[in-house]
Amino acid sequence: MVKKASTNLQTGPSLKIGVLGGGQLGRMMIQSAIDLDVRVEVMDPSKDAPCSSLTHRFVCGDLNDADAVFEFGKDLDVITIEIENVSVEGLKRLEASGVRVVPKPDHIELIQDKGIQKQFFVDNDVATSEFQLVEEGGDISGFGFPVVQKLRKGGYDGRGVQMLKTEAESSDNRFHEKSLIERAVDIDKEISVIVARNTQGEITSYPVVESVFDPVANLVSSLIAPASIDAATESKARELAMKVVDAMQFEGLMAVELFLNTDGEILVNEVAPRTHNSGHHTIEGNRTSQFAQHLRTVANFPLGSTAKLHNAAGMINLLGAEGAFGNPVYEGLGTAIEMEGVNPHLYGKSQVKPHRKMGHITVTGDSIEEVQNKLLKLQSSVRVTGA
Ligand code: ADP
Fold first, then answer.
1. Which pLDDT score is estimated for 217?
2. Distance of alpha carbon 280 from alpha carbon 190, whole angstroms
3. How far is the CA of 161 from the centre of ligand 1 (A)?
4. Pick from 183, 204, 224: which residue ends a domain?
5. Does the pTM of the predicted model rise above 0.90?
6. Which of 150, 183, 216 marks a domain boundary?
7. How does the average pLDDT of the chain come out, rounded?
8. Number of domains forming the structure of the chain
């Protein structure tokens, strides 16, 4: 039976929450935390990380150094992450010393290795593309070509993932590290579902989001919710995402990335054990944003409603333009914010670089078409350059 979370909220100075990673995801979690007087402490390797000036305690440290992670977290009640590339050993030591760790270190460890993650899907009867593990320099021709090769560890935002179209291309460009190959999926749509599950086993999912990728930057360039899929596909996608979270007995918030293939099947691509780019529209689009929901799982508060507040919502990332360096200049943003239902979120990064995520803009509207039109307008009128 699912036990309800406590009706009294333990918050304010009596709840010490720490976050590993001080980027934009942590920053947006802090925005939600302020409303509930949750005081967030942050560790990040960069002294001017987006969270650095907004926390109760900021520690500059290496997230992969077990001792530094332990030292940062040892007096906290609970610790979470906004990036999965952290020292699991440090988190395990914290857990052993009585600090709650959300998500659990074992789950972060599982997800850090794309090979182990894929095997978890197979072992739990979760539909996913066929794959093979490849040793350093091993044979990658098992599925013929095209094939997708992924580094098992350390990839991020499309780095460490490549489609090799031909044998010739594969011998020139292949990764030589430990990797996996996946049969290339004929993708109709890339969709994702954000799921939250708390310690009591309460589980919620958000409506399905459809992502559009920028092939040059290898990042999501825009997304729209709800996805343009039929009701049966929508519920299948949400059920599959919740099945992954349930199978893992995961605690926290997880983004489940899915492929809808051209045969109408849904496959799990990968999961992220944290708030995600594909959930940014929930800030204005849903009753409880992904950041507020994540915080609730971490603080052990009851989960919030994921109901949408508008017929449609969307988002574009604001990436540094080609050749942009120096102090960021948000060209066209003044005009953009005059538009109805347009909300910029800037990440407070002091320096712009080409393709760097500098912020995003969410859009809400009465229909998918209206949101699409606004997103197109924003894509052609807003640019982040440097001065
Ligand atoms: P990352 O962890 O860098 O986000 P992903 O596994 O999400 O890496 O892959 C990045 C992109 O590569 C996906 O969004 C998709 O467009 C493409 N891709 C990944 N796996 C496959 C596959 N098996 N078949 C076809 N395309 C794929």
1. 63
2. 16
3. 7
4. 183
5. yes
6. 183
7. 95
8. 3
